[in-house]
Design a protein that fits this description.
The complex is a heterodimer of chains A (204) and B (262).
Chain A lengths: L16 H14 L1 H31 L5 H32 L1 H9 L4 H38 L2 H5 L3 H32 L11
Helix pairs in contact in A: 1-5, 2-3, 2-5, 2-7, 3-7, 5-7
Chain B lengths: L1 H6 L6 E14 L2 E14 L3 E5 L6 H8 L7 E6 L2 E2 L5 H10 L1 E4 L11 H12 L3 H14 L15 H12 L6 E5 L7 H18 L2 E6 L3 H5 L2 E6 L2 E7 H7 L3 H12 L2
Parallel strand pairs in B: 3-8, 3-9, 6-7, 7-8
Antiparallel strand pairs in B: 1-2, 1-4, 4-5, 9-10
Classes of the chains: A mainly alpha (204), B alpha/beta (262).
């Protein structure tokens, strides 16, 4: 035991990406209700975005002109809906931070540095954003299918500009993940700054 | 560093040393000296109980020794390393490898199983997956939970959760275990079992146990008891002197005093 202190030196802690993904995934699974509320924000925003883009794809496919006023209005609506989604995600992540106050403190006592905490929150939010965006994208697309079946000839929908639609579906999902990660950045940074002594307070 | 180590080699048996440790909290106009110049030396392998009423500075002392809070003045040495000289990443390393924490409220990560809770500090320490599982299983078996590897904290009783917490504290073979009121949320019998388990770990593994407590059962098994009052060390008793006073009036007063403060 006595030579122990002589060989003693301070190193660096690590969190492999695979484990970070596992922990974030577990958080989503176990707190499924909360996770779905967070994802719902992205889901709705992206559903609207995809429905607007699907409409454009239909118009492009049918060879009609796009009304610039309508396009302008739609752009504004999309931006607003994505902002609302971002605020919703932020709010939800702030609550997650408060809920996990002691848990974060404990992790720091076990050797987590600030960066690990930020990583875990951002990965979690990115995953939720991705899932929410995929579900929202499909939903927006299906809604547009129904609307176009009612309001137009069936051929218009299936004759849409599919390459435009495909590319924009992918953009929509990337945008969903991006918004989700950006919206979680501030709550995550706050979580990371919690002192490890927070773990000791029993009243939270 | 080498020269420093050589110069202070006669201190190598001390795992924790504090010098003039002072922590001042400023709350508006009032200045609270939570700790006021505490000098405390703790030998490697000791079992120390820190006793004192709430607000005595016990928790503050605990936080300082565990690297959870920084002193206003004075120094904490862990393994002869001045904690004030370390940056955030190095402090994280110490929390990960050198100190194991046990909390009053158990503080297991709720989304993880017992085994995952124990392997988390090993992940941070960079241990291989095989080694993590092997060590994790062995530790859980040692604390008597070999059949509860994949249970979540919500599926375990308080005593079982605290056993998992003890196994987690030992994950990276720390030099020190810091236990903050480890029995306060447990019934009398379970609390006693937990204390005995801590003592066994201390004897088996040579890990230094520092426990803040109100629990008088701790006195029976502690090597030394540090009584803290008003931010200062009131007295330090070692086992020999405790055994001497057991059964005498002195002892009765002592226990009466401590119970009052709960």
């Amino acid at each position: 035991m006595s030579d122990h202190s002589k060989s003693w030196k301070v190193g660096k802690v690590s969190l492999p990406p695979r484990v970070a993904l596992e922990i974030s995934w577990k958080n989503i699974q176990v707190r499924f209700g909360r996770a779905m509320i967070t994802a719902a924000g992205t889901c709705l925003g992206i559903a609207f975005l995809v429905s607007v883009w699907a409409n454009i794809a239909i118009v492009l496919g049918s060879g009609e002109q796009i009304d610039p006023d309508v396009e302008m209005r739609n752009t504004w609506l999309v931006i607003m809906s994505l902002l609302v989604a971002a605020v919703g995600i932020s709010n939800s992540m702030f609550m997650a931070v408060t809920e996990r106050y002691r848990e974060i403190g404990t992790m720091k006592c076990l050797g987590a540095v600030d960066r690990f905490v930020v990583e875990l929150f951002l990965i979690e939010s990115g995953m939720l954003g991705g899932v929410g965006a995929i579900i929202g994208g499909i939903a927006g697309f299906l809604v547009m299918l129904l609307v176009s079946l009612v309001k137009r000839k069936a051929g218009d929908f299936f004759g849409m500009d599919w390459s435009y639609m495909g590319a924009h579906f992918v953009y929509a999902i990337l945008i969903g993940m991006f918004i989700s990660v950006v919206a979680a950045a501030f709550p995550a940074a706050r979580a990371a700054k919690l002192p490890p002594a927070a773990a000791l307070r029993s009243d939270v | 560093m080498a020269a420093e180590a050589a110069r202070e080699s006669h201190f190598e048996d001390y795992v924790v040393r504090t010098r003039k440790l002072t922590r001042i909290y400023q709350m508006g106009d009032t200045v609270l000296r939570a700790l006021d110049g505490v000098d405390l030396d703790i030998k490697r392998g000791e079992y120390i109980s820190i006793m004192g009423p709430s607000g005595s500075g016990k928790s503050t002392l605990f936080n300082m020794v565990g690297g959870l809070d920084k002193p206003t003045e004075g120094t904490v040495f862990i393994n002869e390393t001045d904690m004030a000289q370390l940056d955030a990443a190095e402090l994280a390393w110490i929390r990960c490898r050198t100190v194991g924490y046990i909390f009053q409220t158990f503080n297991l990560i709720p989304v993880m199983t017992a085994l995952e809770n124990i392997t988390l500090p090993m992940v941070f320490a960079g241990m291989s997956t095989d080694e993590q599982l092997q060590r994790g299983r062995a530790l859980l078996e040692r604390v008597g939970l070999g059949d509860r590897l994949h249970h979540r904290p919500s599926e375990l009783s308080g005593g079982q959760q605290q056993r998992v917490a003890i196994a987690r504290a030992l994950a990276n073979d720390p030099d020190i275990i810091l236990a903050d009121e480890p029995t306060a949320n447990l019934d009398l019998r379970t609390g006693k079992e937990i204390i005995e388990l801590l003592r066994e770990m201390n004897e088996e593994r040579g890990v230094t146990v520092i426990s803040a407590t109100h629990d008088l059962h701790m006195i029976d098994i502690s090597d030394r008891i540090v009584w803290v009052r008003d931010g200062a060390i009131e007295k330090i008793e070692d086992r020999a002197s405790i055994e001497l006073t057991v059964g005498q009036v002195d002892w009765e007063e002592e226990s009466g005093q401590a119970e009052e403060s709960e």
